[in-house]
Amino acid sequence: MFIPEPAQPDKGCNATRLKTESKALTVAAFRGRVPNEDFKPITIREGTKGALKSSAYYQEVYTWDGTSSIYQKRSLLIRVTDGTLKYTLTDAAATELSLYQLVLMQAQRCLWKVPSWRNKQDMGMSEYQVRGRRAWYHHIARCIMAQGYVLQEKLLAKDDYPLLSAYGVSQVII
Q1: Does residue 60 surpass a pLDDT of 90?
Q2: Is the pLDDT of residue 110 over 90?
Q3: Are 132 and 124 in contact (CB under 8 A)?
Q4: Can you give the three-state secondary structure of the chain, one letter per residue?
Q5: 3-state secondary structure (DSSP) of residue 70
Q6: pTM: predicted TM-score of the whole model, two decimal places
Q7: Are 57 and 78 in contact (CB under 8 A)?
Q8: Model pLDDT for residues 17-38, shown as the tens digit of each residue
Q9: How far are the Cα atoms of 48, 86, 165 from residue 143, in angstroms, in the given order?
Q10: Is 87 helix (H, G, I), strand (E, B) or coil?
Q11: What is the pLDDT, as a whole number, of residue 88?
Q12: Where are the strands (E) in 64-135, listed by range?
């Protein structure tokens, strides 16, 4: 944090706003300053085409919007996979999670995207033809309940049918 020094009598008024002495950096520019040796290789998971490998770097950084009187301490995770740079700013401290856990959490963003996509495709969430707000909420609630039922059926049958899909559950019901 920068605390302005009191102004000299011949220098004018005291400073009222904080001012940083360093310039703002983009993540790509920051990545250029970090040596490749500091990036740790991590195997995320085994895939159909082999292991998905990345290199990752973690550091605590400070963010400031330039106008407020407070700054925020964040954790910056940079992951490079096949030349693609991905980064995450998080509140998680280095003592809470390991680098491997942070990389897994960043790589598993599909865990919330896929169910939403499946709900649109399999449950008919995007096939509503209503005009009122209340009818739309009823339709979305029914889609979510249907997805919950399909998930329950898939969990019950996971030992016998490990690849059971929502379409398969609907065919069994009909």
Answers
A1: no
A2: no
A3: no
A4: CCCCCCCCCCCCCCCCCCCCCCCCCCHHHHHHHCCHHHCEEEEEEEECCEEEEEEEEEEEEEECCCCCCCCEEEEEEEEEECCEEEEEEECCCCCCCCHHHHHHHHHCCHHHHHHHHHHHHHCCCCCCCCCCHHHHHHHHHHHHHHHHHHHHHHHHCCCCCCCCCHHHHHHHHC
A5: coil
A6: 0.54
A7: yes
A8: 667 777 778 888 888 888 989 9
A9: 32, 33, 16
A10: strand
A11: 87
A12: 72-81, 84-90
Lowest mean pLDDT among 41-45, 86-90, 107-111, 143-147: 107-111
12: phi > 0 → left, psi -120 to 50 → alpha, else beta; which?
left
Tokens matching residue 149: 């039922």
For the sheet containing 40-47, what is the strand order? 40-47, 50-63, 72-81, 84-90
